[in-house]
Each structure stands twice: as structure tokens, then as C-alpha cells.
Amino acid sequence: MEDFLIVLITVPSEEEGAKIAHALVEGSLAACVNIVRNIRSIYKWQGKVEDEGEFLLIAKTRRTLFEELEKKVKELHSYAVPEVIAIPIAGGSREYLGWLADSTA
Question: Is the pTM of this model over 0.90?
């Protein structure tokens, strides 16, 4: 069975998230990207604690596509250091994982 990933990506705006999501799905780098609105991120950047509203992208992909997906995100993202974190999918319905594989072939 193929190794699948969920990739988390934060973005500053819904528009930027949609642009990245469309590029990933249109390029078959992700089968699906969910855009979660209104998250609050508290993080340290350049020695200062930041407290910002962001949007979260949840991309479903294959492990073999991660490097190319990461490259595309960095190309389109406005942050100097975008969050691109991959989490292995431990299991899922055969039908969904089959669709994920077909959509990223």
C-alpha cells in the first residue's frame, strides 16, 4: 500500500490559501486541500512573540510527492519560512485512499 500524508500549511489570508490549494490540486500534488478559517497562531519570530490570525490548509497527498509539494508551496507562499509539516496517514477507508492515489497519479 502507498504511503500517504496529511500536510499542514498555514497562510495569512484565505485568498493566498486558495491560490496555493488550487495549484496543488491542479498540479496533482494533492488530492484535496481543506481551508480552515479563523485560526489563531501564537509563535516566536525574530525574537518577538507574535499573535496572528491565519488560515490552515490541510492537504492530502502521497509521500513520494512531498518534496515537490513543499517546493510549490514555497514558490507561492508569502512567508519567508512557511509552515509545511507532514503527518503520516496511519489508515483510512480503502475507497478514499484509492481516490487519493488516483487523484495524485
Answer: yes
